[in-house]
Amino acid sequence: MPSQDHSLTGQVAIVTGGGGGIGRAIALAFAAAGADIVIADIIPQRCDEAAASIRALGRDVLAVPTDAADPAQIRALVAQADRQFGRIDILVNNVGGVSGRPFLEQSERSWRRHIDLNLVSMFAATSAAVPTIIRGGRGGAVVNVSSIEASRAAPNYAVYAACKAGMNNFTRTMALELAVHGIRVNAIAPDYTLTPGLHGNVTGPVDPSTWRPPSPEQQQATRRRIPLGRGGIDTECGKAALFLASPMSSYVTGAVLPVDGGSWASSGWIRNEAGQWTLGG
Ligand SMILES: NC(=O)c1ccc[n+]([C@@H]2O[C@H](COP(=O)([O-])OP(=O)(O)OC[C@H]3O[C@@H](n4cnc5c(N)ncnc54)[C@H](O)[C@@H]3O)[C@@H](O)[C@H]2O)c1
User: What is the pLDDT of residue 3?
Assistant: First the structure.
């Protein structure tokens, strides 16, 4: 495979939530592939830290504290990016979030917040950024960060799962609507991936020293449930998103790529104590 197929040289990518976790890993993977990066993260220190890491890779960056769930803020950032770089080629809709409890115990405020974070942020950034990508006339790519929970039942996470299922179908529909402009629209669907959010590090700078390592019981449960036997690493999402944003996937659109160690495929099969596959334990 020629190496230029991985290259994003000369391109500009917007990553929502690009200051931490999966979004940061995607931003750094794209920067390493030659793209200049626009970070839309709500936490100012994370904008600064991600910007420094991107500059260290030799790329230009615009990092502005932005609430991606606020369409006005995203529109302002896209306009600023357009002025600074004169182009936008790639949009990554990564912002999302979840809190777990049975649906009937979830407040209206909570389910509306889930919809804002997981769906409105995607609609707002797509609506703001894609017209600029179209105007460039060079085609482009949208990568949405979905979840395995989009395609299976998720007790205690009903609204999150419904939002991510909506994201998957928005991905497919936009793939059709934007094909005429040469813009490909795809999603990655991670399962359990080690990120600040997963460790409750959701404010302030990313601080791995506050993260508690999984207990032996949690590690054993992960080994039984996930075919590859471990949780995912944020950089693995970065690589999958780079594939979908780059010419490596030039004939891929409307796809949802599991980045889940095989857990979606296993669909109810788990390993028993002896390490043998069994349905339901
Ligand atoms: N980590 C997992 O196990 C996992 C699994 C499946 C799907 N996902 C999805 O991956 C995406 C990223 O998750 P993560 O685990 O990296 O999260 P994270 O909490 O570790 O990082 C999210 C980043 O987004 C920023 N952010 C939060 N709200 C924002 C807002 N309104 N506007 C702008 N920035 C905002 C945060 O400051 C943070 O830097 C989410 O869509 C999530 O649903 C994560």
Answer: 61
Long-range contacts of 104-111 (CB under 8 A, 24+ apart): 106/158, 106/159, 110/159, 111/159
As given in the structure block, the two tokens for residue 233 are 């690493």
Relative to the CA of 237, which ligand 1 atom is closest?
10
Q: How far is the CA of 133 from the centre of ligand 1 (A)?
A: 24
The set of protein residues with a Cβ atom below 6 angstroms from ligand 1 is 16-17, 19-23, 40-43, 46, 66-69, 94-96, 117, 145, 147, 190-193, 195-198, 202
| CA of 192, closest atom in ligand 1 | 3
One-letter amino acid for residue 280 of the chain: G
The CATH architecture assigned to 4-211+231-267 reads 3-Layer(aba) Sandwich (3.40)
Whose CA is closest to 30, among 66, 65, 59, 71?
59
Domain ranges (residues) in the chain: 4-211+231-267
Q: Which amino acid is at 270?
A: I
Burial 54-88 (b: 16+ CB within 10 A, else e): beebebebbbbbbbbbebebbeebbeebbeebebb
Catalytic residues: 160
- Judge whether 27 and 4 are in contact, CB under 8 Å: no
Strands (E), the chain: 12-16, 36-41, 61-65, 90-93, 140-145, 183-190, 193-194, 232-233, 256-259, 269-271, 277-279
Q: Which atom of ligand 1 is nearest to the CA of 97?
A: 43
Q: What are the pLDDT digits (tens) for 115-154?
A: 999 999 999 999 999 999 999 999 999 999 999 999 999 9
Rounded to two decimals, the pTM is 0.98
CA 202 to ligand 1 center in whole angstroms: 9
What is the Å distance from ligand 1's center to 53 Cα?
18
